[in-house]
Design a protein that fits this description.
The protein is α+β, with helices and mostly antiparallel strands. The chain is built from 10 helices and 23 strands. A 5-stranded parallel β-sheet has the order 5-12-6-7-8. It has a 4-stranded antiparallel β-sheet with strand order 16-23-18-21. The chain has a 4-stranded antiparallel β-sheet with strand order 17-22-19-20, with no helix packed on it. The protein starts with 9 loop residues before the first strand and ends with a helix. The relative contact order is 0.11.
Length: 406
């Protein structure tokens, strides 16, 4: 039996594992032994920043693509939500919608590969217009104006669907079971209480264990609030969490066999969790990546070990991936005519960022200075990390600038 409360918005969560109190805005209280937060982030969407004229239709979600007939529709945002909305609106030719999707970059860094391939296929068939390296500069009734790499562009537009991401409802989530104290005349959360986040950035996610448990024992987080916006992920995680709560401690995440196979070639015969802990604690750009984000990142990355003197890559090799040193160190050969002239890069740091940012061939040969373990992030994985974990993006940019100035 499932008890369903309708129109029951939760305003506060207090208590502890085994005895939580969930207070609704109407004043009712629900008692629970455990809590699963599957509230998503769409209640806090990123808003369009350009001017919006009177009468222009701008919305931040799409409930039913079949509602719209014979319209010029612009989807702003090319993550999974935006791509799926655009494809849904263009799926049925009988609806006669003319759909345009706008991506501010050249790459679809935050979208799943399957979605990107499907979108590109529909673009090739002429069913969707894809504008890359483009931003909206003005939205009026009946038209939308873009800043593109080739200049200003104005096209017909009856409706804008903005899917530019969203941020977790931090005040509510952080306040769950938190203790408060007075500071500078206002009430603030006492450090070490409530649900903690991976960083102070607006788009950061809660800190979660591999079983999706937050820093408040007994409160679990799944779906978009955990960093997994696709419905399939949320459904799988919901099943897993209920199994964990019911005592099934042997259940492993669905990606465990894939990661185990990926890490099997590394030295030391360590478990998946041990390697993830090593990567998360010893690689600087992963410091504020949640365990769940790190697992997903590893699925799109390659790991490798090198012996002392072995080349990771050589000068003029093609490559746009980014490398991070989990253990050991490397030497950069700075003089193509004298390999003995080198600069060291130590554990925790990155290299290959020039190829990632510029797309140019490798500028130097880099060899392991000692037995070394590295994580190689494919270009799209690195770009997704930059866009979803701001501290990592800032660290990569800072490192690139500093090295170019040397």
């Amino acid at each position: 039996k499932v008890n369903v409360l309708y129109n029951a918005e939760i305003s506060a969560i207090t208590g502890e594992k085994g005895n939580f109190s969930l207070k609704t805005k109407s004043g009712d209280v629900v008692i629970a032994e455990t809590v699963i937060l599957a509230i998503g982030t769409q209640g806090n969407p990123n808003l369009v920043r350009c001017p919006v004229g009177e009468g222009a239709q701008v919305q931040y979600q799409l409930d039913d693509p079949g509602e719209y007939i014979d319209e010029h529709i612009t989807v702003i945002g090319a993550g999974d939500a935006g791509i799926e909305n655009a494809m849904g609106l263009a799926a049925d030719p009988q609806q006669r919608n003319k759909v345009t999707i706008v991506n501010r970059s050249a790459d679809f860094a935050t979208a799943k590969d399957a979605n990107v391939k499907a979108l590109v296929a529909m673009e090739a068939e002429g069913r969707i217009t894809v504008l890359r390296e483009t931003t909206a500069s003005k939205i009026d009734k009946g038209t939308i104006t873009f800043d593109t790499r080739d200049g200003e562009l104005q096209v017909p537009c009856d409706r804008v669907i903005a899917r530019m991401g969203s941020a977790p409802p931090r005040a509510f989530v952080e306040g769950a079971c938190a203790e408060f104290e007075e500071k500078d005349g206002r009430k603030v959360i006492k450090p070490g209480t409530g649900i903690e986040f991976t960083s102070a950035d607006r788009v950061a996610y809660p800190k979660l264990s591999p079983s999706f448990e937050s820093t408040v024992p007994g409160i679990y987080v799944i779906g978009a609030l955990a960093g997994y916006p696709l419905i399939k992920h949320c459904m799988n995680q919901g099943y897993d969490v209920v199994e964990f709560i019911n005592g099934n401690k042997s259940l492993k995440p669905a990606d465990e066999p894939i990661l185990a196979d990926k890490f099997a070639k590394l030295p030391g015969n360590r478990s998946v969790d041990e390697w993830l802990t090593t990567f998360g604690s010893q690689i600087d750009i992963f410091q504020e990546v949640s365990p769940l984000q790190l697992r997903e990142l590893m699925l799109d990355s390659t790991v490798a070990s090198f012996t002392a003197g072995e080349a990771v890559f050589e000068r003029n090799d093609p490559g746009t991936s980014l490398f991070a040193i989990a253990e050991g160190s490397v030497l950069v050969e700075i003089d193509k005519d004298d390999p003995s002239k080198t600069v060291p890069i130590g554990q925790g740091s990155i290299f290959g960022e020039v190829g990632l940012i510029s797309g140019r061939r490798r500028g130097s040969t880099i060899r392991a200075a000692e037995p070394t373990v590295v994580v190689e992030l494919a270009r799209n994985a690195a770009l997704k990390l930059i866009s979803t974990v701001p501290p990592a993006g800032r660290a990569i940019t800072r490192t690139s600038i500093e090295r170019q100035l040397l």
